[in-house]
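STRUCTURE:
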């Protein structure tokens, strides 16, 4: 018989570290952290992970607990607060912002587990930093008290600082057939990592592969899903132990917004750097005036500013509507259906496109010495956001096609 691991002791209510902390104070902390983040960009990239002192600052600020349920030591703020903090952190360092966004947003995944499973996950201190990896799905074999899980999942951003890892696996019967699928929550120590993240952009995210071989996972850290694949439209809502609809909505649009917040924040950071170039360098053509006095450079800056500002507004409005849709469904009103989720996903993916267009303007207009030379932060942002745009969940054309299919009654 497979031994069942003991459930971690947890009081009925675990208070957050700072019970009176407000969203405004948390956003201010993210802004105040920008100088450190900018100073650590090169170290983050070269080291292939978020520097330890930077991660310690993120933990101390409470950023990993923004979406964590109040019941389990979190602040349970809303999507708009989450987006704003992620944008501000990414304005200082896009790689750190990516790691934070793709771990701090995953309490929404933890909410699909049973009450006992969530108690196990958050434990006695509420520390929860959980990357996810769903590609390719692993395999799970049912045994007494849980499952034996095996797999190798790519691109687990932030795994170096993780307390947990969440993935998906297909349930295999004795004949080798897939009979269902589950979310699986591993604790640190139940998996290993492969040092295989060697890329031209986002190197500092440390998005290594995670490997498990015949690892026992108790039933409380397993949640059923509707299918194997990306998380959009496959999760089964968990038990209603939280009085907040955000834990029971469709999470695909929120996950798309995680990456968008990073891209938009990075675009604002690129604009900051471009302004510094314009204020400190003269143009090369005669007459050699300061670049910020040159109408050509003013036009470049204004265009980039317009794009970034519009992307920010679109992202934040998406967050407001996401919360509205969650509240409506939770209260028994209009369902938060696939069509609504696709609409919200398209909004934020257009915001990513605007952020990329702004970064492209900055990269070209700042000039070779400020953009292309090794180690220049504008070039680093350009590479990082180019890498983000390859993420499979952030492909606008795919979502637009599926939105049309949904509208016309065709299975996406």
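SEQUENCE:
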């Amino acid at each position: 018989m497979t031994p069942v691991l003991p459930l971690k002791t947890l009081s009925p209510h675990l208070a957050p570290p700072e019970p009176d902390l407000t969203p405004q104070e948390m956003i201010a902390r993210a802004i105040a952290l920008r100088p450190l983040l900018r100073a650590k960009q090169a170290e983050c990239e070269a080291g292939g992970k978020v520097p330890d002192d930077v991660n310690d600052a993120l933990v101390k600020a409470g950023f990993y607990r923004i979406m964590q349920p109040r019941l389990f030591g979190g602040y349970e703020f809303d999507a708009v607060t989450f987006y704003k903090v992620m944008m501000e952190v990414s304005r200082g360092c896009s790689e750190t912002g990516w790691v934070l966004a793709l771990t701090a947003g995953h309490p929404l995944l933890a909410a699909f587990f049973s009450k006992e499973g969530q108690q196990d996950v958050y434990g006695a201190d509420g520390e929860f930093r959980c990357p996810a990896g769903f590609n390719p799905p692993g395999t799970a074999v049912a045994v007494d008290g849980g499952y034996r899980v095996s797999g190798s999942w790519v691109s687990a951003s932030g795994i170096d600082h993780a307390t947990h890892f969440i993935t998906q696996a297909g349930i295999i019967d004795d004949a080798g057939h897939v009979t269902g699928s589950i979310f699986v929550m591993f604790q640190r120590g139940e998996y290993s990592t492969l040092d295989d993240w060697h890329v031209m952009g986002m190197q500092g995210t440390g998005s290594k592969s995670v490997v498990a071989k015949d690892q026992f996972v108790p039933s409380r850290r397993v949640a059923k899903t509707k299918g194997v694949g990306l998380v959009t439209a496959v999760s089964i809502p968990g038990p209603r132990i939280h009085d907040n609809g955000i834990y029971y909505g469709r999470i695909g649009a929120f996950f798309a917004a995680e990456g968008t917040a990073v891209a938009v924040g990075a675009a604002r950071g690129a604009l900051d750097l471009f302004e510094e170039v314009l204020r400190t360098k003269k143009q090369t053509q005669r007459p050699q005036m300061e670049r910020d006095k040159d109408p050509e450079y003013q036009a470049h800056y204004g265009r980039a500013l317009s794009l970034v500002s519009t992307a920010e507004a679109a992202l934040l409005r998406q967050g407001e509507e996401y919360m509205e849709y969650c509240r409506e469904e939770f209260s028994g009103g209009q369902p938060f259906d696939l069509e609504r989720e696709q609409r919200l996903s398209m909004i934020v993916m257009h915001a990513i496109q605007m952020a990329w267009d702004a970064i492209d303007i900055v990269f070209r207009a700042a000039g070779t010495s400020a953009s292309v030379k090794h180690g220049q932060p504008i070039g680093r942002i350009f590479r990082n956001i180019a890498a983000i745009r390859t993420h499979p969940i952030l492909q606008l054309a795919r979502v637009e096609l599926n939105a049309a299919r949904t509208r016309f009654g065709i299975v996406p």
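REMARK: Residues 247-407 form a domain with the Butyryl-CoA Dehydrogenase, subunit A; domain 3 fold (CATH 1.20.140.10).
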